[in-house]
Amino acid sequence: MSTQPLPLAGVTVVTVEQAVAAPFATRQLADLGARVVKIERPDGGDFARGYDTAARGLASHFVWCNRGKESVAVDLKDPRGLALVRKMVAGADVFVQNLAQGAAARLGLDAATLCAAHPWLIAVDVSGYGAEGPYAHKRAYDMLVQCEAGLVSVTGTPEQPVKSGIPAADIAAGMYAFSGVLAALVRRGTTGRGGPVEVSLLDSLAEWMGHPLHHGMHGGAAPARTGLAHAVIAPYDAYPTTDGLVLLSVQNDREWRRLAERVLGRPELAADPAFATNTARVAGRAATDAVVAAALAPLTAAEALARLDAAGIACARLNSVAELADHPQLTARDRWREVGSPVGPLRALLPPIVFPDAPEPRMDRIPALGQDTDEVLAELGVPGPEVKELREAGVIA
């Protein structure tokens, strides 16, 4: 039985956001109980709404990043619309924006301006490259930042660099914005003051590049691209079975001895100087991989995994996205829920942060554009006739 509320119950967030980074951050806040009011353009809203129609007619990015929010459609370029948003912000705990660099400042919605006017407010500016420097005004889409941060240079095969299959720069920035809000809320609880928070996609992904960055800066060269293999550990790769790929990882020489004896059926390799140490196995990676591949090739994936598990060797199946959706571990732990949307219920995963002594995370509906405009404006005290006038003028939707 829950004995405490969700951690962010009672916190109000107003956000002028688009695409992935800021929406992903504020969705985490909504999951943990915050009220999140999402400001969108009347003429189409967050442009992520139009990325695709894969989620039964809705965009998959939007479905992923926007559950649990209220959508208010307001034209910020109209002074009347901007005044409404400023009134919303005045009553909020947190404001988040990821408009193009300089756009928020021109509207007076940048963190520095808002925090000067509202000392209690926590205001977050999410940008591509930061507020200053030669890249400040460059467009910063996820793939471009992956390239600038060097992620693409260490991802892929020796012959071909590739970008990450997920928007890694957006996700990194979103998670740092989320944790930045949490840290600022803790500080406000101590000092009574909010303050500005700045997060950039490049800074976030550069931090995630820590291993190859330090390897290159201090070791003389970045790790080589090795596909599914590990640059400095062997065997650590995917190997074919009769019905799919199985990955395994040997982290130390004790594990290599167990692998040789109990899975490969080659106990003599445990002491063979060409294989006995990780340094030797990496230097002779082709021979190491050939020995492992030969032992696993006649087995089914299930047989290979059973042998590896029995020997205490870390292993996994190379799943497809469809197989992830039906993963037995997610099913066994009851991680799936349904959330409402304009097209009906959609499956969604519970968020990773679990509070066993609190209610389940909020997983409220995905809003239609402007679904909550009238309700929020009524809370602000805007009279019905004025709401009608603003709608007829295209200031709200």
In short:
This protein is an alpha/beta fold and 397 residues long. 39% of the residues lie in helices and 14% in strands.
Give a description of the structure.
With 397 residues, the protein is of the alpha/beta class. 39% of the residues lie in helices and 14% in strands. The protein contains 17 helices and eleven strands. The chain has helices spanning 21-31, 60-65, 79-90, 103-107, 111-117, 142-148, 168-191, 201-208, 210-219, 253-262, 278-283, 285-296, 301-310, 321-325, 328-332, 373-379, 384-392; strands at 12-16, 35-40, 69-73, 94-97, 122-127, 195-200, 236-241, 244-249, 314-317, 336-339, 346-349. The strands form three sheets. It has a six-stranded parallel beta sheet, with helices on both faces. A three-stranded antiparallel beta sheet has the order 7-8-9, with helices on one face. Strand 1, helix 1 (21-31) and strand 2 (35-40) form a beta-alpha-beta unit. Helix 1 packs across helix 7 and helix 7 (168-191) packs across helix 8. The longest helix is centred in the middle third of the chain and has 24 residues, at 168-191. It is elongated, with a radius of gyration of 25 Å. It starts with 11 loop residues before the first strand and ends in a 5-residue tail after the last helix. The mean pLDDT is 95.
Describe the largest sheet: 6 strands, parallel
The total of helices stands at: 17
If strands are numbered along the chain, what order do they take across the biggest sheet? 3-2-1-4-5-6
Number of strands: 11
Low-confidence stretches: none
